[in-house]
Write a structure and sequence with these properties.
Blueprint: H1 3-13, H2 22-27, E1 46-48, E2 72-74, E3 80-81, E4 87-101, E5 110-114, E6 125-126, E7 132-133, E8 139-151, E9 158-166, H3 170-181, E10 184-187, E11 190-193, E12 199-210, E13 213-226, H4 230-244
Antiparallel strand pairs: 1-2, 2-3, 4-5, 4-8, 4-12, 6-7, 7-8, 8-9, 10-11, 12-13
């Protein structure tokens, strides 16, 4: 195989156009999206695959070839990341949401999102099953939603996603938020808190358990370093601004279509 053929094969393996077309693609970069706004796009969720997940059941329409328990997947594209290898993410925004679900014995189901300033949140009572119950008898589930840029390890490219944590995973969210807030940079002898979207983190998958069983959960592996690419930094900052302005539209959450209330990132212990 010639050098030119070798280079072309390498480019194709990285998910790029043929080498002879790269300049043309660069010339037309972004073309065709002139009338596409944030309202026309959806931000996918990034979830951990559990033993009960349809993504590992071959006869299920949501099956993903090659998926294994503990892997991470994109709810829109079905892209997979191997859990043991971890994922690189850049936190660009954060929202805490309060979700209402009907009692399972009454058919369950998602009832809607409760505004963070709704007085009813102060009336929530924790029952003997460690669930938060609203005055109307419905369950309230707290969802810590981290808006991130996640890296594709095969190409090195980054894309927007939502990494949400619920139930016992909320403690992981608090730990991560604490570590994020501690990141500082020193400039001319003065310390500044680094912007959240200026730091790259690696997240992995761990296993936890209780009396009901065991399941996979997020694990913060640590800081990978600061963002060094100016274009990537700009993209992260723009994503941050969209989140703050409330202009980010999330994709349909598969958890909200299920009968039961979600457990730990939307999965039931096995």
């Amino acid at each position: 195989m010639s050098d030119s053929q070798t280079k072309e094969v390498a480019v194709k393996k990285q998910g790029l156009p043929p080498a002879n077309m790269l300049d043309t693609f660069v010339q037309d970069a972004g073309a065709g999206r002139e009338n596409v706004t944030q309202d026309d796009m959806q931000i996918p969720f990034i979830r951990i695959i559990q033993a009960t997940s349809p993504q590992v059941k071959k006869k299920d329409s949501k099956y993903i070839k090659g998926a294994e328990i503990g892997d991470v997947y994109n709810t829109v594209t079905n892209q997979l990341w191997k859990g043991e290898e971890g994922v690189n993410v850049i936190p660009c925004g954060y929202l805490k949401k309060f979700l209402e679900f009907g009692p399972y014995e009454d058919g369950g189901g998602f009832k809607g999102e409760i505004p963070s300033n709704d007085p009813v949140l102060k009336q929530v009572v924790r029952n003997d099953k460690n669930k938060d119950i609203l005055p109307n008898g419905n369950e309230m589930v707290t969802s810590a939603q981290h808006y991130v840029m996640i890296q594709d390890p095969s190409t090195g490219s980054w894309s927007n996603a939502i990494l949400d944590m619920k139930s016992t995973a909320l403690k992981i969210s608090r730990q991560w938020n604490t570590q994020i807030a501690m990141q500082q940079i020193e400039v001319k002898g003065k310390l500044y808190t680094a912007p959240t979207f200026g730091v790259i983190w690696q997240l992995g998958v761990d296993e936890t358990s209780n009396d009901m069983g065991s399941w996979s959960i997020w694990k913060i592996l640590g800081k990978q370093g600061f963002v060094e690419d100016a274009d990537l930094y700009t993209s992260c900052r723009e994503f941050n601004q969209l989140v703050k302005a409330g202009e980010v539209k999330a994709a349909e959450d598969p958890d909200l279509a299920q009968k039961e209330t979600p457990e730990d990132d939307g999965q039931i212990p096995f």
